[in-house]
Amino acid sequence: MAAMSAMPPDYAALARDIKQWARELGFAAAGISDVELEEDERHLEGWLAEGLHGAMDYMARHGRKRSRPAELQPGTRRVISVRMDYLPAQARDPWQVLGDGELAYVARYALGRDYHKLMRSRLQRLAERIQAAIGPFGHRVFVDSAPVLEKALARHAGLGWIGKHTLLIDRRAGSYFFLGELYTDLPLPVDAPVGAHCGSCRRCLDVCPTQAILAPYRLDARRCIAYLTIEFKGSIPKELRAPIGNRIFGCDDCQLVCPWNKFAQPSVERDFAPRHGLDGARLIELFAWSEETFLHRTEGMAIRRAGYEGWLRNIAVALGNAPASAAVRAALATRMEHPSALVREHVAWALERQQAAARAAA
């Protein structure tokens, strides 16, 4: 007699276990979605066609694999999305830092350890837990490592809705969190999407320093401070330099004013705690860092993405926006002959701005 085939897994029970295992691994929540993203694909293609992605050519490089998970990873039937909160518990008050032009503002997500390796490792451990329970299965882990529509997938998985600022919002936890995905060939039951709860609120649109949010759900990355200070490697448009203020890496304004972030929970991950006092460091001190110091102190941090040249460019802009002082002008003068033409250009702009402010105050 032929041996009887093994019984298939109880996928409903497995889905419940997966969510529990995810919480045990430090994720705040997990959800499961299908791979149908037709509406999001149309939105993405329209956004790209308008050129609103700026110099982020990778957004268009992979064709439709970003919106078609089964083309990116053949056999994918479900996506397990996870959320990890990052709001550092001990960081200085962001509004106080933004209000002091002598200090440097760094987006809250970038104050501690880079999240990519940490989350990828945890997701891989989640995959191993699943495999231990049911045997080998097809899967692939993603954390900003491939063309993935992570916010759309997380919305489909019930982890929140996409707000007018284009970030994901959870009504119980706000928006200060990272997302990661586990693509799988398992026919797991899917979770129900969450309805939007922005209502008539437009605080995020109104607060944006560079008016990068053109309309609800429509972001012009070319004007976004996060894009300009991190992704963009060229000369920051002059008309956008003053609105950048003292933001040297990223921007949180649209999240800071979001009413739902009153429910945001501080992260329990010690790795996300601020390093090297970057939650409110003085601009002049950071501008004095050598490249060796920059590479040493940003090791394992997202700030590395800006590069040393971008770091100096960004701080030069912030110093140009700082209260006029001889100390700021002296600091800028130390970089007037920097080998990088990009740095020299922004230093010259900042010096001219500082000198004009000093003359006006005389």
UniProtKB/TrEMBL annotation:
Q: Which UniProt keywords apply?
A: 4Fe-4S, Cobalamin, Cobalt, Cytoplasm, Iron, Iron-sulfur, Metal-binding, Oxidoreductase, Queuosine biosynthesis, tRNA processing
| Family matches, as Pfam families | Fer4_16, QueG_DUF1730
All residue ranges annotated as the 4Fe-4S ferredoxin-type domain in the record: 186-218
Where is the protein situated, by its record's location annotation?
Cytoplasm
Q: Which GO terms describe its biological process?
A: tRNA queuosine(34) biosynthetic process
Signal peptide residues are: none
Q: Could you name the domain of life of the organism this protein comes from? A: Bacteria
Q: Which molecular-function annotations from GO does this UniProt entry contain? A: 4 iron, 4 sulfur cluster binding; cobalamin binding; epoxyqueuosine reductase activity; metal ion binding
Q: How does it assemble?
A: Monomer.
What's the name of the protein? Epoxyqueuosine reductase
Q: Which organism is it from?
A: Aerosticca soli
Q: Which gene encodes it?
A: queG
